[in-house]
Amino acid sequence: MIRAARVRVPSGLPGWIFVPAALGGLFVVLPLFAMLASVDWSRFFQLVTSESSLAALELSLRTAALSTVLCVLLGVPMAAVLSRSSFRGLHVLRSLVLLPLVLPPVVGGIALLYTFGRKGLIGQHLEVAGIHIAFTTTAVVLAQTFVALPFLVVSLEGSLRTAGSRYEHAAATLGASPTTVFRRVTLPLVLPGLVSGAVLSFARALGEFGATLTFAGSLQGVTRTLPLEIYLQRETDADAAVALSLVLVVVAVLIVVGSRGWASRAAV
C-alpha cells in the first residue's frame, strides 16, 4: 500500500517569527488557564447561581443587547458616511468617532455624567421634564454604547471600503433610489462585516466596567452588571469573583466563536 506523501505548504514567513507569535499567544492564553485552575469547582454552581450573580448576569446580557441595537442603528449610518463621503474635516470626524477606543473608560463615564447628569449639558433640561438618566439602567446602556460603538464603525467601514462601490453604481444606473441601493445592495454585501462588528460591540459592552461605574453606579438589579459584581466579590469572596469571571469568559467565547462561524458561512 502506497501512502500519499504529505505536502508541506510553505507559509512564506521567516522561521523566527513563529517564536514571538507563540509567546504572544501564550501571554493571552496562560492567564485564562491560570484562572481556570483557580476555580473552586466544589462550590462553582453555588457561587454563580446566587441571587446577586444571576441578577448581574441578566442585567449584563439585557443591557449589552440593547446597546448593540443602538450601535447598529447609529453605527451603520456612521460607517457609511465615513466610507462613502468626501468632505473637508472627514479625518477629524473619523478621529472623534474612534476616540472612545483610546479614551480611558472612566473618562468616558465622567463625560457622559457631565452630559446626561442632573446638572449636565443635556441632563439639566431632561430633569425639568422629569427624565432621569444618570445612575439608572438607561445610563448603563448609554455607557456601554459609548465604548462599544467605535468597534462596529471600524469593522463596518473596513468592509465597505473593501467591497467598493461598483455594485452600488450599477444599481443606481439601473434606476434604483439611494435608499433602495443601500438596503438591497450595500447592506447584503457587507453583512459579514456588520455581524462581526455587532458581535465585537456586544462583547465590549458585556465587559464594560469603568464608564458604567462612573456614570451609572452599582445598584443591584438596576446598574450592577457582571463586571461590577466581579469587582465587588473580589473584595469579599475571591472564589466567587473567579467563578463569575469564568462565566463571563465562557459567554464571550461562545458568542464570538458562534458569530464568526455564521459570518464565515454568510461570506461564502
Percent range for β-strand residues: under 5%
Tell me the structural class: mainly alpha
The SSE string, one letter per element, is: HHHHHHHHHHHHH
Q: Give me the number of helical elements.
A: 13
Q: What general outline do the C-alpha atoms trace? A: globular
Q: What is the CA-CA span between the terminal residues?
A: 37 Å
Give the domain tally.
Answer: 1
What's the number of extended β-strand segments?
0
Spans of 5+ residues with little confidence (pLDDT < 50)?
none
* Main β-sheet description: none
CATH topology category name: MetI-like fold
The CATH homologous superfamily: MetI-like
Give the % helix.
Answer: over 70%
Question: In CATH terms, what is the architecture?
Answer: Orthogonal Bundle
Computed Rg: 23 Å
Instruction: Average the pLDDT over all residues and give the rounded result.
Output: 87
> In CATH's first tier, which class applies?
Mainly Alpha
Produce the secondary structure layout:
Layout: H1 18-37, H2 44-48, H3 51-84, H4 90-97, H5 105-116, H6 123-128, H7 137-163, H8 166-173, H9 178-189, H10 191-206, H11 210-216, H12 226-236, H13 238-267
Helix pairs in contact: 3-7, 3-10, 3-12, 5-7, 5-11, 7-10, 7-11, 8-9, 10-13, 12-13
Care to describe what's here?
- One of its GO terms (molecular function) is molybdate ion transmembrane transporter activity.
- Part of the binding-protein-dependent transport system for molybdenum; probably responsible for the translocation of the substrate across the membrane.
- Belongs to the binding-protein-dependent transport system permease family. CysTW subfamily.
- With 268 residues, the protein is mostly helical.
- The chain has one domain (42-265): MetI-like fold.
- It has helices at 18-37, 44-48, 51-84, 90-97, 105-116, 123-128, 137-163, 166-173, 178-189, 191-206, 210-216, 226-236, 238-267.
- Helix 3 runs parallel beside helix 7, helix 3 packs across helix 12 and helix 8 runs antiparallel to helix 9 (178-189).
